[in-house]
């Protein structure tokens, strides 16, 4: 490794949870990184106990938030708007995925800035917060609109059917839900990062789980409420849905101008669209799977936000931690631009290495089984859903959840350094992809699990009863 370049470390400060860490930058331009060596060399001296103590409580709170979202979905799936406008199910993963596309990405960006000491000036803090909240509003409006178009295409092309009233409902409810949920959750993320900084807690361990805990519940509740309201307005208040669409369309240029003029967001407003929109498309494929499986297995709805949320949550924590360590090593796009990773990522070093991120991978993976047992038994205790707890159900469900998280953590461990050495900021790119892949894998694995339960059970829609 080369010696530290003072210009690269200007403005960087060592947070209280990384005492004793020596910062260093990577290899000169044009040289290569061995992926396994790079990961083991990343700074950080947190113990497994420290990681567990900081991650567990937010993880459990997040899980119960997802249980709440699952119970909401289990109820609203029988509402008239969901039974008559079935394309709304395709919207669900894409809109719930916004917490990964926008709020958890915002939490990761702010956590990195807090760790580097860039949030200590009130003037700079206000600029950073104002720019980032404007950014997620602009992204939410665009993603909400495109999600509704995707739902229409995926839902209507196979049928060869088109309903203009249902199309306006999908578009208005999607845009309204995305913008309002992002405003609420983005504001909460700012508060969480500031409080974490004040109490000397690593915000990478706390902020993204809290975003996950509130994101699904808030988003799904808003979607169900506004969707039902707009469905009741069909044929009576025909102006309502078009008005919502026009209002948010007029607000979009305002948010874009604010982002362009803000130094903290003027690059992201140009470069941050590819991961967000790609993630939306991946999540929409998960929505297509959900639309099919909900029609065949009643019990799947209550577990879908839980398995997707837990997987995305744990992967986001891991990605956020690695991203912060890489920012402490040097800025992306500095001397490492055009560098590339050499070698295949060793799965044993990912989970059993001696570095701090291997410890984190072990801790996060070990949380899966007890976490899902707690959340699933809570669902059964509250008599939610349409399934009963059985050994067979738990075996298939926990296997699906564990496989999803192992794959996501492995992908995150490879993806974040790859983004960094290519000169992009992982805080803006990695989490949208990871949460979207988590949605797709979680929904697909859950559908497979329920199908096997159906084949081995009593062959009705309640599978394990």
Structure, described:
73% of the residues lie in helices and 1% in strands. It contains 17 helices and two strands. A two-stranded parallel sheet has the order 1-2. It is a multi-pass membrane protein.
Low-confidence blocks of residues: 1-30
Following the backbone from N to C, one meets helices and strands in this order, namely EHHHHHHHHHHHHEHHHHH
Structural class: mainly alpha
Percent of sequence in beta strands: under 5%
Mean pLDDT: 80
Defining traits:
single chain; mainly alpha; 73% helix; 1% strand; disordered N terminus
Task: Write the SSE topology.
Blueprint: E1 32-34, H1 35-41, H2 48-76, H3 80-84, H4 88-96, H5 98-115, H6 122-156, H7 164-198, H8 203-233, H9 240-260, H10 268-271, H11 273-296, H12 300-329, E2 340-342, H13 347-352, H14 356-366, H15 368-381, H16 391-421, H17 426-456
Parallel strand pairs: 1-2
Helix pairs in contact: 2-8, 2-12, 2-14, 2-15, 4-6, 4-11, 5-6, 5-7, 5-8, 5-12, 5-17, 6-7, 6-9, 6-11, 7-8, 7-9, 8-12, 11-17, 12-14, 12-15, 12-16, 12-17, 15-16, 16-17
In short:
This protein is 73% helix and 1% strand. The chain has helices at residues 35-41, 48-76, 80-84, 88-96, 98-115, 122-156, 164-198, 203-233, 240-260, 268-271, 273-296, 300-329, 347-352, 356-366, 368-381, 391-421, 426-456; strands at residues 32-34, 340-342.
